[in-house]
Write a structure and sequence with these properties.
The chain has a domain at 49-194: YVTN repeat-like/Quinoprotein amine dehydrogenase (Methylamine Dehydrogenase, Chain H, 7 Propeller). The chain is 0% helix and 52% strand. It has no helices and 29 strands. Strand 24 (296-302) and strand 25 (305-310) form a beta hairpin.
């Protein structure tokens, strides 16, 4: 694959959500240099704020984040083009995250405004069918503005068919569910994991060893490390600041790097990506890299490169990650992108 160009799809906010994007954009990526060549908007669709690919099929899924939550499916062409395959109602407002289970047979969606998790069966072509389940979270958190009710922010299926973890910012909780493959329904596993009050958990990243994960708190600017058991139970081990910078820190994305030696956290407000060494018990801050904007909403690793989507600066920033140290170094000029909220190599 080296030397060949590959496609990156970029999701963003459209006018309905106060953004400037027109839908899903595409860019061609040079794996050798990391450079992106913008190809323009390839699907006009409302606020496709998060994107995910099918594990085995040329299909891309997007949430349509708005008052009437929807999910859209597209067949992907080698040139980055998108052919619509179907749109489904998510049963809740403001869907903000989605994931396909590893066997490729179901799609899960997190409804932020609805505080719920929706499940859709996928056919042999990856097309979503009628919603097979909708589980609503109940309760609230300590922050009266942001935690007045449940706000599901992420769904993370177990990589080996283990329990689904659903991260809820509004109730300071991570819920566990088993998916009944035949019915497409979620079976709750008790108890849910409760974070410290006011954490506002947003996203989590699993270690490839299957025994650890890290959760970022959007509201309190923390990273919490958990031991992860086979049945999806989380046992808190350590808690550190997501950034060493002064100012309002609002973590967004979190990912474990190749080889499982480093953890990457995007910090909105201070405009950084923090790099932590995670070989020991406690994540140790190696460095914190300026992204060139203040609102890094999402990032993705591809090969030796890190792509950071800055929603408010209307750009994708490209970094080369040093394989030895794990430290990202900026490469070239930022690539223009309208209100980008997700970058998906």
């Amino acid at each position: 694959m080296t030397g060949q160009h590959t496609i990156v799809h970029i999701g963003g906010y459209t006018a309905e959500m106060g953004g400037r994007a027109e839908g899903i954009a595409a860019a061609r990526r040079d794996p050798a240099t990391g450079a992106l060549t913008p190809l323009g908007t390839v699907a006009v669709t409302p606020s496709p704020s998060f994107l995910v690919r099918h594990p085995a099929l040329p299909v891309l899924y997007a949430v349509n984040e708005g008052a009437d939550g929807r999910v859209s499916a597209f067949r992907t062409a080698p040139d980055g083009g998108l052919e619509p395959l179907g749109v489904r109602d998510t049963g809740g407002a403001e869907p903000c995250h989605l994931a396909v289970v590893p066997d490729g047979r179901h799609l899960m969606v997190a409804n932020y405004g609805g505080g719920s998790v929706a499940v859709f069966p996928l056919d042999a072509e990856g097309v979503p069918g009628d919603r097979s389940d909708l589980v609503r979270h109940e309760g609230h958190g300590a922050d009266p503005q942001r935690q007045e009710k449940a706000h599901c922010h992420m769904v993370s299926p177990g990589p080996d068919g283990g329990p689904l973890l659903a991260v809820d910012l509004g109730t300071d909780s991570v819920y566990r569910y088993d998916l009944d493959d035949a019915s497409g329904r979620l079976v709750p596993r008790a108890p849910r994991v409760r974070t410290p009050a006011g954490t506002g958990p947003r996203h989590l990243a699993r270690h490839p060893d299957g025994r650890r994960c890290w959760l970022v708190g959007e509201l309190d600017g923390t990273v919490t490390g958990y031991q992860l058991t086979g049945d999806g139970a989380l046992h808190q081990r350590v808690r550190v600041d997501a950034s060493g910078r002064a100012g309002h820190v609002q973590p967004s994305e979190v990912t474990v790097g190749p080889g499982g030696r480093h953890l990457y956290v995007a910090n909105r407000g201070v405009g950084t990506v923090a790099v932590f060494a995670i070989s020991g018990e406690t994540p140790e801050l190696v460095t914190e890299v300026d992204t060139g904007g203040e609102w890094p909403r999402h990032f993705a690793l591809a090969g030796e490169h890190l792509y950071v989507a800055d929603e408010r600066a209307d750009m994708i920033r490209i970094f080369r990650v040093d394989p030895a140290t794990g430290v990202p170094e900026p490469v070239g000029e930022p690539v223009p992108a309208a209100s980008p909220t997700c970058v998906r190599p």
